[in-house]
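thoughts on my protein:
***
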Amino acid sequence: MPKLTYITPSNEERIVEADEGFTLMEIAVNNDIEGIDADCGGSCACATCHIIIPPEFLKIAGRAHEDESALLDFLDSRRKGSRLSCQIEMTEELDGMTVKIPPPD
């Protein structure tokens, strides 16, 4: 089974088994990962599931679409690699990825 590592806002490293077909937000919520609040439940209507994708996984995870990018624009912590975890589906290609969860804005 693929694995993901989340680095929480308090710098705790959490390695979790990540079922393919679930979003990175769903995986985080199901594993009680600190910093992923998912207030909108994954409908891309907030930015409480903000993560930073490492450079080597950017092409695999894909680019943010227009609505997602607009939400990310409201964050002071946005930087290259910023994505909403509700918009990224877990695949075998993402196995071993480490994502950082920035502190809330």
In short: The helical segments are 24-30, 58-61, 66-72.
